[in-house]
Amino acid sequence: MRQTYVVSYDICDPKRLRKVFKTLRGYGDHLQLSVFRCELSARELVELRTKLAAVMHQGEDQVLFVDVGPAEGRGAGSISSLGRTYTHPERHALVV
User: Fold this and answer.
1) 66-94 pLDDT, tens per residue?
2) DSSP designation for 88
3) CATH, domain range 3-76
4) What angle, 0 to 180 degrees and rounded to 10, lies between the N-to-C axes of helices 42-55 and 14-25?
5) pTM score, two decimals?
């Protein structure tokens, strides 16, 4: 079962910041400056956390994972906004 996570980060070094951004871009949708929405299986969550831990500095940087529920359920509609409307990104399969 896939869970929806809001992942935010505070990275002190610009070089590490780019690496964290690129890593997260492969796992979710970029919502705001340091915020991603990711739909992850348990294996993908462990994989992502391992990759981020290798890139960040444990004493200076921080990455937060907020579990907002199953991807098909509460997680799909749990993000709301003020100001500009939040639209859930549509995913399309690409067959090559």
Assistant:
1) 988 887 766 556 666 555 666 666 665 56
2) P
3) 3.30.70.240
4) 160
5) 0.80
